[in-house]
Amino acid sequence: MKTLKYTLFLITLLTVLFISCSKDYPTGSEFDPYTFSGTDQNGGEWKPILLTSNEQIIIDAPSSTTSDAYKAELGAMKTAISSNAEADAIAYWGNNPIVRWNEIARELAAKYNLTPAPNADGTYPAPSAAKPDVYPYFPFAHPPYACRAFAYLSTAQLDGLIAAWHYKYKFNRPAVHITDNTIKSAFPTNDLPSYPSDGAVIAAVSRDILSALFPLEKQYIKDKADEMKRSLIAAGINVESDISAGDSLGRGIAKVFLKRASTDGMSKAQVSKAVSDSLRTVALARFGWEWSNQESPQRPVGIAPFYGKLKLWSVPNVESVRPLPPPAPGSADFNKAADELKTIAANLTNEQRRIANWWSDGLGTYTPPGHWNRVATDNIIKYKMNPLRSARVFAYLNMAIQDAGISCWDAKYYYHYPRPIQSMIGFKTILGTPNFPSYTSGHSTFSAAAATFLSYIFPAEKTQFDAMAHEASESRIYGGIHFRFDCEAGLEAGKKIAEFTIQKAITDGSN
Amino acid sequence: MYSAILRLGNFIGLLFMTIFVALATLSKTEAQTPSDALMMKKSELCIAALYQHDTWDHYWEGTLLRENLNIGTLTRTNVMPMIAYGITERLNVILSLPYVSTSASGGQMAGVSGFQDFSIFAKYKILNLEKTSGSFQTFGTVGYSLPATSYLSDYMPLNLGLGTNELSARVIMKYEHNSGLYLRGSFAYLYRTTTETERDYYYADKGIYSSTMDVPNTTTVDGALGAWLFDRSIQLEVGAVKNTAQSGDDIRRQNAPQPTNKMNMSNVNAYLRFFPKFFSGFSIIAGYTQVLEGRNIGKSTILTGGLTYQFSTKKQIAQ
After folding, report:
1. Are A326 and A206 in a shared domain?
2. Which of A156, B150, B245, B274 is least enclosed, having the fewest CB within 10 Å?
3. CA B273 → CA B49, B288, B308, distances in Å?
4. Mean predicted confidence (pLDDT) in B68-83
5. Which is more confident, A155 or A19?
6. Is residue A332 part of a domain?
7. Are residues A285 and A207 in the same domain?
8. Residue A5 clears pLDDT 90, i.e. is over it
């Protein structure tokens, strides 16, 4: 019986140890509210992305802080503060909600980044914007779709905040902690005028943009926006009239961006099989090679063949950044690259495997653009940026990334170059090969554009960003899904594209 | 062709002869696995090598049974050396370390191979009631396993294993009639720690910023009806197993599985073990398992073959 007792003791002990191991995992960046490195008083005069003026969307002047209406709002705020009902929301949103909305966008991308399953007869259904709730659900948030979503979200946020900053200093309604010093802000205080609420602008813009891009998530997104607005009152930041003015401004801004989105070419990016086949025919005639999907059953059309025709943000035209042709399959340069893939696959180290997986960001994830938004987030927090500056980083970063995507997709379907698994018979990989042509590497183009732009914003981190971009690029070679020349051309193009973005950012009046 | 059939005929003939000879000359040696109800005597050592051949061409994506031509047929082979030792009459320990290989007949994903998880089990005979008609026994098993190599669990379905430390506690009950017929049932709880992936963002009902994945704890219930035949030279058994994950998410539509998935499984199985007298101490194992129901798991057919050799260390030292 003694042995039994020991056994039971051991079971109990190990059980306790195991249970205490399970934990809650972070669902975003963890940061405490921080004092902004600056408040950018002239932010209202920065050059917007799409707005033609910082008063394109009109809002009413606020009531005076001595008015009864304002005092009543302060009373409501005090009730909200004392109820403490929004404590979790205040802790979640913090004082830089730009970060949270970026995370929400990443999560939606990951949730919708699923490729359609084949029908029983071997054909494939396609998602439809007109019927988003019919499987396959709309959208399929592949990297081109995701980076476009990030770009619209963050450029609209930036223009919204430029307009908000403009009105803040135009109307100069003092912050709540100044008009009533009995109210204690949940966040470190600053001298930003409170009307309109920059938080409410962010909530409204983000809600309207993301709802349009992820229509099935409308309710989830609205709940987030409502929660955020409530938390601003409960945190002692904005009274109701600050919020409603911000919401109204945000709605107007979002419309401007959604108008561009409706005519940017995205609705025509996914083409018919006939058009897709004609691209293959043209490539075969022009170059003597062609790309075909290698899945079973074969997918009839690659991802977004006409994405290369989308409206660019900063690059004058896509042909100006199109890389030179890749080496022909069977040529000496090709054989060298193919041999490299075979050698790596046969001798794959744990470190190479780790790098391939680390940067994979494939189906079901937030995509490589999402990965770089995360890198930007970490640095925005590290450098204690205010929401306006944060929005500027995300806006230009995602314009650079989307331009990189458009350029890369132009090259992919112009050159229509086969993947390693197509041109190297019997070659096996440790990553799944995506459903679009090989040349150039999307990861490399996205990453070089992102690293180059982020290095302009955070020059002290340049070495690190460049190393990350090179590793992301190299990861595709380790994964067996790209040739080295795909990656090198992508890195070069991405860098070139980001230079256009930087030129635009330099002249926006923020420096 | 004809000579091949002749050779096969000879082989079958030889096999039958072997069985016949063995039946005539019986051995009572028994060896064991963590889930059976067998015990070894003090100082007895059993060395075993088991081979499993597991294939499936359909799997459950969540609850949807489907095929995937980019996987085709998934094959998983498992060579498992095992050592069991009788510390006392009531307490045995079992050690094992399987070598696993995976491959897919469809698609272009590379298979992997390597040592999987090292495991140690202690089996304790809690209760032994001898009646005139038969005997009733209760056993408790505690096991611990951990990855023996740095294999990647987040490479499903071609992964070698779940990459988690696992603590299992099992209670086994068995009633054996004097005729050799027996009934056995067991219940086990498998506590699993987390597994480390090579990415620090994944989606499991929500976006998670971590490289660590929870691997669901699992309960397993099994029951078997068996018989010792021909003076205990043959053990024949049919049974069923049901594994139920206690948490976890479903594989999303047309997405790859991941270690966080809720993996449920029910199978039926048959098992034959033969103890030839002329090779005293040896036994031959053959098994067949068919998965019938599941969730986030392959609809596997598993063939098992094995060889065990059991001897007393004391006796040899004494000699």
Report:
1. no
2. B150
3. 14, 12, 10
4. 97
5. A155
6. yes
7. no
8. no
**How far out from the chain centre does Cα A50 lie?**
19
Would the pLDDT of B122 be above 70? yes
Residues in chain B closer than 8 A to A295 (CB atoms) = 69-70, 107
Q: Does some domain include residue A129?
A: no
Q: What is the DSSP string of B231-244?
A: TTTEEEEEEEEEEE
Do B110 and A428 make contact, defined as CB atoms within 8 angstroms? Answer: yes
Pairing type for strands B202-203 and B207-208 reads: antiparallel
Q: B250: which chain A residues are within 8 Å (Cβ-Cβ)?
A: none
Which residue among A262, A292, A320 closes a domain?
A262
Tell me how far apart the terminal alpha carbons of chain A are, to the nearest angstrom.
78
For the residues B149-176, what does the mean pLDDT come to?
A: 97
A288 domain-assigned: yes
Distance from CA of A157 to the nearest CA of B (A): 22
| Together in a domain, A361 and A212 | no
> pLDDT (tens digit, 9 = 90+) per residue, A326-339?
999 999 999 999 99
- Most B-contacting residue of A16, A25, A142, A360 (CB-CB within 10 A), to test interface: A25
Q: Are residues A226 and A285 in the same domain?
A: no
Alpha carbon of B316: minimum distance to chain A alpha carbons (Å): 28
Residues 268-287 of B with CB under 8 A from A: none
Closest CA to B110 of A481, A475, A418, A297: A481
Q: How many CB atoms lie within 10 A of CB B219?
A: 13
Model confidence at B21, in pLDDT bands (50, 70, 90)?
very low
Is the model's pLDDT at A117 over the cut of 60? yes
- Same domain for A168 and A273, yes or no, is no
Q: What is the pTM of this model?
A: 0.92
Residue A22: inside a domain:
no
Using CA atoms, how far apart are residues A341 and A335, in angstroms rounded to an integer? 10
Residue A295 and residue B194: Cβ atoms within 8 Å? no
Q: For chain A, how many structural domains are there in total? A: 2
Q: Is residue B196 classed as helix, strand or coil in its secondary structure?
A: strand
A256 and A306 in a single domain? The answer is no
pLDDT of A2 reads: 56
User: Where residue A443 sits, what CATH number does that domain have?
Assistant: 1.10.606.20
Domain boundaries defined on chain B: 2-318
Note whether A188 and A239 are same-domain residues: yes
Structural domain of A430: 269-506
Maximum Cα interatomic distance, chain B, rounded to a whole number of Å: 65
Given A229, A245, A262, the domain boundary residue is A262
> Is the CB of A107 less than 8 angstroms away from the CB of B207?
yes
pLDDT in tens, B25-47: 333 333 456 667 678 889 999 99
Instruction: Measure Cα distances from A175 to A191, A228, A389 in Å.
Output: 7, 18, 20
The 10s digit of each residue's pLDDT in A436-464 is: 999 999 999 999 999 999 999 999 999 99
Convert the pLDDT of each residue in B218-227 to its tens digit. 999 999 999 9
* pLDDT for the residue numbered B237: 97
Res B38: pLDDT = 76
Closest CA in chain B for residue A116: B254
Shortest alpha-carbon distance between residue B58 and chain A (Å) = 14
CATH of span B2-318 = 2.40.160.40
Residues A154 and A239 occupy one common structural domain: yes
